[in-house]
Amino acid sequence: MKVLGIESSCDETGVAIYDTEKGLLSERLYSQVAMHAEYGGVVPELASRDHIRKIVPLIRESVAEAGLKMSDLDGIAYTSGPGLIGALMVGASVGRTMAWSLDIPAVAVHHMEGHLLAPMLEDDAPEFPFVALLVSGGHTMLVEVKAIGEYKILGESLDDAVGEAFDKTAKLLGLSYPGGPELAALAEKGKPSEIKFPKPMVNRPGLDFSFSGLKTSALQTWTKSSQTDEAKADIAYAFQEAVVETLAIKCDRALKQTGYKRLVVAGGVGANKRLRERLAELQGTVFFPRQAYCTDNGAMIAYAGALRLNAGESEAAVISPQPRWSLESLSGLSQAV
């Protein structure tokens, strides 16, 4: 089954074709980072307009790269949420319309399920069950994954997502957008010092997170510091260490709580080098997608959609993106057959 996947939940336009027999056939990705950098963050209306400009050319390129014609496609998968409503509307409208015109089934894919299943695209894909740490600019959560569609949220951020905290802290330090990777790069130049930031909520029971206080601590420390390049690097180092250690403690706790031995890490922050090093120290096997599949991409949507389409799922001919959509509301594939 050859499935076209479309990702347009935020500021990346991703397109890919996944074949259930041959694997990934092609993929295209366009990032709007340069455009939004001028504003220091994603401007939703501009994001939507850029998706409109880029999505059809990317689909044509991806189909050609796969050596296919549009009529060779067996199904369409598109991100239906969560995300920016305008951006989601573009992908859903194009995907649903293509499916209708080609008379093939379409399926709405949950953005976070796409991230969660991204490591399955690798040769050393994890087996079920496992714990998933989903860390991005919009989400931070620990999920118990018994099978595809059988998800239980064990804990999530009560305020800022970890990627959001990285970006906001980078901005207050005067770093350019996108701030997360900039802060991580600066942290490598920093060193251990008297600067120590709290590890939020690690002394409380449970698996929820909170990162807004860390952002405030970083601001106060920077304001009182000498504000030299050295001080900035040391603050970045201390901030990243506090975040990474907090995530590691909670992941260790989740593995012990569930009794599972496998941890999957996905989402944009999963590309963080220090986080990967620290989680590798946990008791268990840790799985990461390749760097390119940590951030938003069409391949993960094509793969997740192919699994659901192959199990018999499909959507009615309506366009109804969901900017808010609980991961726990998804059906297991056994229910879809």
How are the SSEs placed, and which strands pair?
Elements: E1 2-7, E2 12-19, E3 23-31, H1 33-37, H2 44-65, E4 75-81, H3 85-102, E5 106-110, H4 111-117, E6 130-135, E7 140-147, E8 150-156, H5 162-172, H6 179-187, H7 212-224, H8 229-258, E9 262-266, H9 273-279, E10 285-287, H10 298-310, H11 333-336
Parallel strand pairs: 1-4, 4-5, 6-9, 9-10
Antiparallel strand pairs: 1-2, 2-3, 6-7, 7-8
Helix pairs in contact: 2-3, 4-10, 5-6, 5-7, 6-8, 7-8, 8-9
Briefly, what is this?
With 337 residues, the chain is an alpha/beta fold.
Describe this structure in words.
- One of its GO terms (biological process) is tRNA threonylcarbamoyladenosine modification.
- Fe cation binds at residues 111, 115, 296.
- This is tRNA N6-adenosine threonylcarbamoyltransferase.
- The protein is α/β, with parallel strands linked by helices and 337 residues long.
- It has 2 domains: 2-117 and 294-336, 2-Layer Sandwich (Nucleotidyltransferase, domain 5), CATH 3.30.420.40; 128-288, 2-Layer Sandwich (Nucleotidyltransferase, domain 5), CATH 3.30.420.40.
- The protein is built from 11 helices and 10 strands.
- It has a 5-stranded mixed beta sheet, with helices on both faces.
- Helix 4 (111-117) packs across helix 10 (298-310), helix 5 crosses helix 6 and helix 8 (229-258) packs parallel to helix 9 (273-279).
- It is globular.
- The relative contact order is 0.19.
